[in-house]
Every structure is written in C-alpha cells, then in structure tokens.
Design brief:
alpha/beta, Rossmann fold, 2 domains, 14 strands, 24% strand, globular
Length: 294
C-alpha cells in the first residue's frame, strides 16, 4: 500500500477554529486540492486538519461519477454522514459544505448513530473512534452507490474505499481500488493518479520486475524505462494499466488505470511491446509497476 505524495498541511486535530471564524482563503487552499486552481500568496494560510478533511469529503462528492441508482435526478439531499468523533468536527464539516450542491442535490451533513441511518448516506466518514466497529458497519452497507471514507490505518483492509492519512504534517489519501470498482463510483484518472498507488490489487513490483495480474502467462516482458524527466523531477510511485491482449498474444489497446501521467505512459509504452502466450480468445490483463530512481 502506498500513500499519496500530494496533500495539504494542517494545524492538527486539536487546532479547531470556531465555525464562524474560518478564513475563506484557507478553504480556498483546500478546495484547490482537487479543483487544480492556482492560488495567490494571500491564500496561503494554514487550515486546520478538520478543515482539510472536510474539504476532501466535499470534493470527493463533487468529483465522483455517481451511479444513477444511488443518486437519481431531483432535489433530494446528498448526505455526508459522520460516524463517531466529536461535535466540533461535525460543525467544521457543516461550515465547509454550507450552501453547496452536488448537481441538483443540496449537501446535508448528518451524524449517523445507527446502522439504519447509514443506509441513507452517500458518503460515510468513519472517525478513528469507530475503528472497532467499522468492519461490521461496512459489511452491512449496500455494495454500490456509497463512498466509504476512513482515517485509520486498517480501514482499507476492512473494506473501506478511501483512507485519509497524516504524513509529515499533511493530509493525504490512499485508495482500495477493488472496493471502489464494486461500488460503481468512479473518479477520473487524474484524481486517482494523485494517490500514486492502491490497496487490493496485485502487489507492487520492484523497479525491475513488473507485476502482471491476469490469466495469461507472459512470454516477453521488457521492463519500462524510467523517464528522464521523471528522474529530473525525482518522481517515484506506482503506475497501473489495463491491456487488451489479442488471441495471438500481442497487446492491442492499453488503458491507464492510475499513476503519475509520466510514469503511467512509460509503463503503457513498455506493455505495448509485451507478448503473452496464445489463447483462444481476447483477454484483458492488468499490470502494475513501481518506479524508483535508477
């Protein structure tokens, strides 16, 4: 499992501000995490950890492609549910999402205290205090249309989809791609690339040994070349692609599933040259590769 190398620095969980005193400039920094909008020097203030996590939840809602069955057209509320934790955090989330909409749906923040309440949520954020009960809660929820977000190191292993983690003063995120696929909630490759890795797919390979996850044996698999520009920028991380393999074993279309665009393209270029064992029919194979400086 790898941790995103992109995030926002924060004051820490004990640095809550009163709900009416959040600086708008600080929230602009957080919202830029996913909107990719430029920030001025005046905007570079340090938001609290609670504000950062609240903004992540809002932007996950805004940038996801939701299945129609889970979010039908109409004015019904989009429910962000908080499971566990303190009242201060709930107030922070309410302040960040106040007046926001997801399409035609006004965003509502709910403190979910029962399993029945969880079933009407679109995003559920499990606080650390709920880690002992998270597995049971996750197992009882619908498999599609609900985004499960946590903040505990074991959350993805319990079936969670996105986990927010602290790393050197920044809030970053990691993704369980298997659970995400089953949920029918989709994010663009640009967003998934920010995670630079995932939990729940084939183990990451070393820089000299790509990991192929599929049904066909490889006959020829030259390793990807570490791009010169990536080396200059000191980029590291894992890329993942999906390849359509023809019956004769040659590779046709290659689709990027995740990873920094430079690294993903290097992997895709290598995989296009691979040769698999022949098969009676066309198959789809997944390949994952970890890039490190040479």
């Amino acid at each position: 499992m790898q941790i995103l190398k992109h995030g926002v620095r924060s004051r820490g969980e004990d640095g809550f501000l009163p709900p009416r005193s959040y600086p708008r400039t600080a929230l602009a920094i957080i919202l830029a995490v996913f909107s990719f909008q430029p920030m001025t020097l005046a905007q570079q203030q340090s938001p609290s950890e609670a504000q950062v996590k609240a903004a992540y939840l809002l932007n996950f809602a805004k940038l996801a492609e939701w299945p129609h069955t889970g979010l039908p057209e109409g004015p019904s509320p989009f429910a962000i549910c908080i499971r566990g934790g303190e009242e201060e955090f709930l107030n922070v989330v309410k302040s960040v999402v106040a007046g926001k909409t997801i399409g035609t749906h006004p965003v509502a923040v709910i403190r979910a205290t029962s399993e029945d309440e969880l079933k009407s949520c679109h995003i559920i954020f499990f606080r650390t205090s709920e880690k002992k009960h998270a597995r049971v809660s996750v197992g009882s929820l619908p498999k599609t249309g609900v985004l499960l977000v946590g903040e505990d190191e074991s959350f993805l292993q319990q079936g969670g989809m996105i986990n927010l983690v602290r790393d050197r003063g920044s809030i970053r995120f990691e993704v369980n791609t298997d659970a995400m696929d089953h949920s029918e909630i989709h994010f663009s490759s640009k967003i998934l690339a920010m995670a630079k890795g995932s939990y729940g797919v084939a183990p990451a390979a070393s820089s000299s040994n790509p990991s192929a996850d599929g049904s066909r044996r490889l006959e020829l698999s030259p390793a990807p070349e570490y791009p010169q520009l990536a080396e200059h920028l000191k980029l590291t991380g894992t890329a993942q692609v999906e390849a359509v393999v023809k019956p004769d074993g040659t590779v046709g279309e290659v689709r990027v599933l995740g990873g920094h665009p430079l690294l993903a393209e290097a992997l895709a270029s290598a995989v296009r040259q691979w040769k698999y064992q022949p098969s009676p029919k066309e198959t789809t194979e997944r390949v994952k590769f970890s890039f490190t400086p040479q």
